[in-house]
């Protein structure tokens, strides 16, 4: 995105933050106004002013007498939104990836300027915007989105962010496997999958990615994580998957009162990162001693008694039982 400096212009997105750190983001329109919890922000008071200025709300003409909406006089600081701010505030249909996860995709996927990247699952465009920024105008991004309505949302959010449709981006609507057939072998440096069944797309992904290219997949459940990891290993075409998740916790620092905030962004998804082997070479894996039934499917068991899980040793079990017997006997003696 071109760097924007100077006074705010009509058509720009502006983020307003009050003293309680509540944020509201909207597009400036000549003669327009935006309602907040403390009155209206008049857009004409913002257009032509610089970032970092303070604007005060005016009373809402249609608010109830004595309500906070009618009060006015509430101060907001005006700034251009960062990309992370824009992503969290933009209109969306599908659930977006959080900035903490997007940052991991860019960093762990080693996505850099000039690269050719294939993305499957555009959604509302949060990941697409960051990929466009990462590869830059010298690179290329192809996004395959199954649903036409999501593709429209994705395109519109990108157009609002850039002010135009990026010419280094192509949006394709349709099924991943069918659309992937339109590209030749070894067409992409990186592939990003954000979909329900990425394990079903690995054959086409391997054909399209260059040897050594990075495949990074975002999944939200442990069931998806297990299925994808095992399929990657079984294929032999991909290196041992590197699996991680990120947790985000903000802190409060007020004099000597320094503590974490009570709320945090916990689990949102897993990142599965792997690299493509050269044709004719199988991936190397660590040879672990197999554990009983770690790869068994419970649904396929005819007799549940044969499962015999060994998550805890027999010796440890006997010790736990001795301790419990002792503690329960004390209860009887105490009564």
Automatic annotation (TrEMBL):
Top-level taxon: Bacteria
User: Per the record, what are the reactions this protein catalyses?
Assistant: adenosine(58) in tRNA + S-adenosyl-L-methionine = N(1)-methyladenosine(58) in tRNA + S-adenosyl-L-homocysteine + H(+)
Q: Which residues bind S-adenosyl-L-methionine?
A: 145, 175, 194
Please give the GO cellular component terms listed in this UniProt entry: tRNA (m1A) methyltransferase complex
Its annotated function is as follows: Catalyzes the S-adenosyl-L-methionine-dependent formation of N(1)-methyladenine at position 58 (m1A58) in tRNA.
**Assembly mode:** Homotetramer composed of a dimer of dimers.
Show the PANTHER family listed in the entry: TRNA (ADENINE(58)-N(1))-METHYLTRANSFERASE (PTHR12133), TRNA (ADENINE(58)-N(1))-METHYLTRANSFERASE, MITOCHONDRIAL (PTHR12133:SF1)
UniProt record similarity statement: Belongs to the class I-like SAM-binding methyltransferase superfamily. TRM61 family.
* Name of the featured protein: tRNA (adenine(58)-N(1))-methyltransferase TrmI
Organism field: Parascardovia denticolens DSM 10105 = JCM 12538
Lineage at the top is: Bacteria, Bacillati, Actinomycetota, Actinomycetes, Bifidobacteriales
């Amino acid at each position: 995105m071109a760097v924007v400096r100077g006074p705010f212009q009509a058509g720009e997105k502006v983020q307003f933050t009050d003293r309680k750190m509540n944020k509201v983001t909207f597009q400036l329109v000549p003669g327009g106004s935006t309602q907040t919890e403390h009155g209206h922000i008049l857009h004409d008071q913002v257009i032509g002013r610089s970032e970092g200025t303070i604007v005060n709300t005016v009373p809402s003409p249609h608010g109830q007498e004595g309500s906070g909406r009618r009060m006015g006089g509430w101060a907001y600081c005006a700034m251009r939104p960062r990309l992370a701010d824009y992503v969290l505030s933009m209109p969306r249909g599908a659930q977006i990836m959080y900035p903490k996860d997007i940052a991991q995709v860019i960093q762990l996927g080693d996505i850099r300027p000039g690269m050719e990247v294939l993305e499957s699952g555009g959604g509302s465009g949060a990941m697409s915007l960051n990929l466009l920024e990462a590869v830059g105008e010298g690179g290329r991004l192809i996004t395959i989105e199954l649903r036409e309505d999501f593709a429209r949302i994705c395109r519109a959010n990108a157009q609002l962010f850039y002010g135009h449709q990026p010419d280094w981006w192509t949006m394709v609507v349709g099924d991943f496997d069918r659309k992937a057939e339109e590209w030749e072998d070894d067409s992409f440096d990186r592939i990003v999958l954000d979909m329900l069944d990425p394990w079903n797309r690995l054959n086409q992904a391997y054909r399209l990615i260059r040897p050594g290219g990075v495949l990074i997949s975002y999944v939200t459940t442990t069931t998806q994580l297990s299925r994808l990891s095992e399929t990657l290993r079984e294929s032999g075409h991909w290196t041992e998957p590197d699996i991680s998740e990120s947790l985000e916790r903000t802190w409060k620092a007020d004099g000597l009162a320094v503590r974490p905030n009570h709320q945090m962004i916990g689990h949102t998804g897993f990142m599965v990162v792997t690299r493509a082997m050269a044709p004719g070479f199988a991936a190397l894996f660590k040879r672990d001693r197999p554990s009983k039934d770690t790869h068994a499917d419970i649904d396929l068991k005819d007799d549940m008694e044969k499962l015999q899980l060994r998550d805890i040793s027999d010796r440890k079990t006997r010790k736990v039982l001795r301790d419990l017997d002792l503690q329960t006997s004390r209860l009887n003696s105490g009564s």
